[in-house]
Amino acid sequence: MATLARGAGERVQREEGAGGGRRLVRGVCPHDCWDTCSLVTTVEERAGGIRAVRIEGDAGMPVTRGFLCVKVNHYLERVYHRERVLYPLRRAGRKGEGRFERISWEEALETVVTRFRQIIAESGPEAILPYSYAGVMGLLQEASMDRRFFHRLGASQLDRTICSSAAEAALRLTYGGRLGPDPEEIPEARLILLWGVDPAATNVHMLPLIDEARRRGATVVGIDPYRHDTARRADLWLQPRPGSDGALALALMHILVRDGRLDRAYLERNTVGWEELEPRLQRTTPAWAAPITGLEVAEIEELGRLYGREPRSLLRAGYGLQRHGNGGQTVRNLSLLPALTGAWRYPGCGFLLSNSSAFPVDTRALRRPDLLGDRRPRRINMVRLGDALLGDPEALGAPPGTPREEVTPLRALFVYNSNPAAVAPDQEKVLRGLAREDLFLVVSELMMTETARYADILLPATSQLEQLDVHTSYWHLYVQLNEPAIPPLGEAVPNTELFRRLAARMGFDEDCFRESDEELIRQALAPTGITLERLRAEHSVRLDLPRPWLPYADCRGPDGRGRLPTPSGLIEIASEEAARAGIGRLPDYTPEAESPDGDPALARRYPLQLVSPAAKHFLNSSFANVEVLRRNEVRPTVYIHPVDAEARGIADGDLVALWNDRGRVQLWARVDGRVTRPGVLVSPSLWWHRDSPGGRNVNALTSQRVADLGGGATFHGTMVEAAPAEVAVTAARHELLGARRG
């Protein structure tokens, strides 16, 4: 057995030496999280077979450091949960009722293939849509054999935009990709701005790095509408209005210019367009930004002075701030701040949202888009799933004005690695679409989720402990191997095997559908120079990158030409691509469309801005059915400012209703200082419908509008009204009676 550095490995080796009959398996957390933790699973032989009995963080992995987040500490409760889907099932009741009967894999596959062939014959393959996201983040189980299958089928293509696409598009336009400093070097920073991110809930392995930076003298500033648990580590905490972050960034740029805090040598060598932007910053004063952000001029000035005085700064951004209508431009503005100060010159400094572009993985080899041949299926934005299921022509990829009868409707939906009934916006439309009796819905799932309850055919998926996979990270710089620790429970199969079986049943005879998971790993990793054999020996392997890792310290090559994958080869402050994308050649600020500034008329009806950040004990809807984590999260909650609560007769602990034109939810009110800006509500998410008092979670209120770049989601651009639940019910009845009388 490979020896671990310390901790869990030593403990298990001692148990084995004492005849404990246990062994150790190395793995990787599969969930959508920056940390991409290295796992140590202890399994033991029992009379009934092999069982996992303990899961811990790998103490020998430099980022994981031997501990896990509160969610994955309870991963075994998820693996062995009573709601695991263990066998193929066929619907036996109404859609959404959740009544099923067990069938064989043979019958399940034959049913799917027969229906697919019928739909293709009658409506074409574009009538079928795969729907998946990052329920599993491994290269194989997230996106490999499944993409091959749907490419070969010719199904409609899914634009997977629900999480980060606005930010990704902004960074591509500005820097050519998604790179930042090495997280292991964060303690070198002397100023850390935690902007729209809560590491205590979503990036727990950053906390020791922040603590070490503070011990070395760093100042920590938090910028977030929500005073979350990470605030305890901050020396200064600012709470701007949701969606106003881009204006705050422009005000900081103004201060840097005004106070002579620019690194002009860095700007001249590494950027294009600064000479165009600088004069425009004269107007973006703290006095201009204050009414937009809701901050005091003095607060903005203090932040500007801190950032200008310390070039060894890290701006650590979260994804929530780009889930607005202006989200792409916001990330563009924030990401340019370290270019003005030259922070990119220093280890652990600059701008860090994602390091995804550091990994030269061969995704084309995994996904095989060439299997499409000459076909160019329509593309459907997953953010608009509700409209697409209900036949909206534009949501189905048709040009504006196309008559509904001229558009091929969606007749089949295949859901895996996702739970759209809970996580997709405009929930009422999504549920109406899933409830269509003429929609053939196939779901591959671990649990009996809200989406699974609507399935016509429900297939059992494996957990991470039951499948082979290889993982990159969008935060740290390590490639890691996940070895299966236990045999699949019941008749569950990994995604790769599921789509191999479907391809064989469909008669797809290309060799690529017979490739093993090991072969897929070798194809994916070929450009990295990291072999499967090395991963099996070492488990975690850092990319062959220099230390310190300074991706934008010098953007020119030895020949003096720019070397970034942008049109100029340099950091593009001015961007023709951005102009063509519709956000302007230069950084700017436009109000969030659904906000008091963006739509005053709407704000008079729905005056409260609702944001729904990650709950500490859930990851989207994952883990929300694990009993101990649900108890720790207590209950579906909305934080409300005392001024807003008093105006509506809401007391701490009351059951309240939130509503807008899209839907209505019920939550318990907390009036405890987490929200210090009137007009803002915060509801940590996401709860399952059955555990929500109104039978819906906050996505009953969120919109299918897309962001300014990348077709991204706008979850945090949501306006609502609130009242005590019994008052809201009475008001709704009066409104309904009035409408009937009218």
Keywords summarizing the entry:
16% strand, six-stranded mixed beta sheet, six-stranded mixed beta barrel, 742 residues, 26 helices, 4 domains, globular, 31% helix, Dimethylsulfoxide Reductase, domain 2, disordered C terminus, alpha/beta, Rossmann fold, disordered N terminus
The biggest sheet, with number of strands, parallel, antiparallel or mixed sense and barrel status, is: 6 strands, mixed
Q: Estimate nothing, just give the exact number of structural domains.
A: 4
Structural class: alpha/beta
CATH topology of the largest domain: Dimethylsulfoxide Reductase, domain 2
Write the layout of secondary structure elements.
Layout: H1 8-17, E1 22-28, E2 38-46, E3 49-57, H2 75-79, E4 89-91, E5 100-102, H3 105-123, E6 128-131, H4 139-142, H5 145-153, E7 157-159, H6 165-175, E8 191-195, H7 199-202, H8 207-215, E9 219-223, E10 236-238, H9 245-258, H10 264-270, E11 271-272, H11 274-280, H12 286-293, H13 297-309, E12 313-317, H14 327-341, E13 350-352, H15 363-367, E14 379-381, H16 385-389, E15 412-416, H17 420-423, H18 427-434, E16 440-445, E17 457-460, E18 469-471, E19 478-482, H19 495-506, H20 517-525, H21 532-538, E20 540-542, E21 571-572, H22 576-581, H23 600-605, E22 608-611, H24 627-633, E23 637-640, H25 642-647, E24 655-659, E25 664-670, E26 680-682, E27 718-724, H26 725-741
Parallel strand pairs: 6-15, 7-14, 8-9, 8-12, 9-10, 11-21, 12-13, 15-16, 16-17, 22-26, 23-25
Antiparallel strand pairs: 1-2, 2-3, 4-5, 4-17, 18-19, 19-20, 22-27, 23-26, 24-25, 24-27
Helix pairs in contact: 3-19, 6-14, 9-12, 9-13, 9-14, 12-13
